[in-house]
């Protein structure tokens, strides 16, 4: 629990399952009011019902595809100008593990629309509210893939590197506006993400010891809300590998060649 969240309003994208769902439960436990969005309204409604049973807090749910800018604009029109938002968690995203040769342009464009353009659009819509409040926290779910690219994740890694660059610049832009900006860089999380990213199921088997539980990642994020945390990197050992890669990329690519192709 985080007492700083009591009475705050938190908007979570991609909240119908996995990390987004766990964030919703833990934010509600801390006494926050929730606005949950995702493409699957039925799943959101079940989460809404579960939270209402356990916690005395408001939960609003909306069907929204963050890859569609027009839908985002309509969503914020529904919310109205008076709706306060204290925390935005840009969690919606997906990946497809294919080489550049095998990936289609449709798949590449979809990843860019959801992972990058949708995140930017959600942020742009929320920022004026936070600036007016002189407070807020924007949390962008990036990935360790944004720090160390591997084969078959070329396009996905590109989207997450874009998220990290956007987050770092945004942090400096709003530093004097009372707004915190945090990037979250998890390794593989045990969620439905891999049903799309890796239909064979081999990747999760090969990286089993690195796989994170969504509730554990959510707990780390909730704990850091309304603090000046620059990044949350999980697991720590994988992040250490990313740091070494930035220092000695050629060596890491040579030594880790076999491991990198375990997708």
From TrEMBL:
Record carries keyword Oxidoreductase: yes
EC identifiers of the protein: 1.-.-.-
Keyword hit for Chaperone: no
PROSITE patterns: ADH_SHORT
Top EC class, one word: oxidoreductase
Classification via InterPro entries: NAD(P)-bd_dom_sf (IPR036291), Sc_DH/Rdtase_CS (IPR020904), SDR_fam (IPR002347)
GO cellular component: membrane
GO molecular function, one term: oxidoreductase activity, acting on the CH-OH group of donors, NAD or NADP as acceptor
Record key words, sorted: Oxidoreductase
PANTHER family cross-referenced by the UniProt entry: DEHYDROGENASE/REDUCTASE SDR FAMILY MEMBER 7B, DEHYDROGENASE_REDUCTASE SDR FAMILY MEMBER 7B
Family: Belongs to the short-chain dehydrogenases/reductases (SDR) family.
Protein name, as recorded: Putative oxidoreductase YqjQ
Organism: Caldibacillus thermoamylovorans
Lineage of source species: Bacteria, Bacillati, Bacillota, Bacilli, Bacillales
Gene: yqjQ
């Amino acid at each position: 629990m985080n007492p700083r969240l009591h009475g705050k309003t938190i908007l979570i994208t991609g909240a119908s399952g996995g990390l987004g769902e766990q964030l919703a439960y833990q934010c509600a436990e801390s006494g926050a009011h929730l606005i949950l969005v995702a493409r699957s309204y039925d799943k959101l409604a079940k989460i809404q019902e579960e939270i209402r049973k356990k916690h005395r807090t408001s939960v609003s749910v909306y069907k929204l595809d963050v890859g569609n800018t027009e839908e985002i604009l309509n969503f914020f029109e529904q919310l109205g100008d008076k709706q306060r938002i204290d925390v935005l968690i840009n969690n919606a995203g997906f990946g497809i593990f294919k080489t550049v040769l095998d990936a289609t342009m449709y798949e590449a464009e979809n990843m860019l629309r959801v992972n990058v353009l949708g995140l930017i659009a959600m942020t742009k819509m929320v920022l004026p509210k936070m600036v007016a409040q002189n407070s807020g926290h924007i949390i962008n779910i990036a990935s360790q893939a944004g720090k160390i690219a591997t084969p078959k994740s070329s396009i996905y890694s590109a989207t997450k590197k874009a998220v990290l660059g956007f987050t770092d610049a945004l942090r400096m832009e709003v530093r004097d506006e009372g707004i915190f900006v945090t990037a979250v860089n998890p390794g593989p999380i045990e969620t439905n993400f891999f049903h799309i990213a890796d239909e064979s199921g081999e990747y999760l088997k090969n990286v089993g010891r690195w796989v994170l539980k969504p509730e554990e990642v959510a707990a780390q994020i909730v704990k850091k809300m309304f603090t000046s945390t620059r990044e949350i990197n999980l697991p720590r050992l994988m992040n250490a590998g990313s740091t070494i890669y930035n220092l000695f990329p050629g060596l890491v690519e040579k030594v880790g060649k076999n491991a990198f192709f375990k997708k």
